[in-house]
Amino acid sequence: MTQPTDIRRDGEQPLLLDLFSCAGGAAMGYARAGFAVRGCDVTHRPNYPFPYHRGDALAYLAHLIATGEIRRFAFVHASPPCQHGCALTVGTNASQGWGRTHVDLVAPTRALLDATGLPYIIEQPNGRAEIRKDLTLCGEMFGLGVIRHRNFELSGWSIEQPVHVPHRGRVRGYRHGRFYDGPYVAAYGNGGGKPTVPELQTALGIDWTDVREELTEAIPPAYSEHIGRAYLATRATLGVAA
Q: Is residue 74 a contact partner of residue 9, using CB atoms and an 8 Å limit?
């Protein structure tokens, strides 16, 4: 058996594992909060701004647990594919009579995360994903040009829920053949008055990828920076090394 590397930091920074990392929206926020980030995604992600392992996230996590290498990390973030429960996908499938063929990876992700013994967070959009909504964040809380509600299940720590700031208007785009203007852009899909790539980058606070599909899937870094800073502050208050 491979001997585990008994470190939880990279230099002076606690090490964070970013599973289902996509292009690194969450990763960048955690890095700004003070973590050293290592990602994992099954898809080739040349725009991911930190070191990452290309492969199945759950298989990689199981490997880290089996070898003891998971002890290198202080915290885990996981964003398993959301198409199974996302409100947008569910509604589209129902209207078209397509049924729901996407695999739900939330439960197996949680089971492996529990086995790590580490504090973790699972992120999902609004919809039917079966996670506890310990925290819900919205772009308006951070002055962003997207609404992009995201829910987070926390284990091993807690965070205060910010007040949900009222939205300032509509999401810009076409609805039932009519165009509506508004202070937010629709950070999903294409066509129908959807924003340009530069508009998406500005609205989300992401400038290291210009791939639309990556932008439309990304968590705004402001969300994970808020989460990461709160976690590190909690550990510091308790006098516990991150």
A: yes
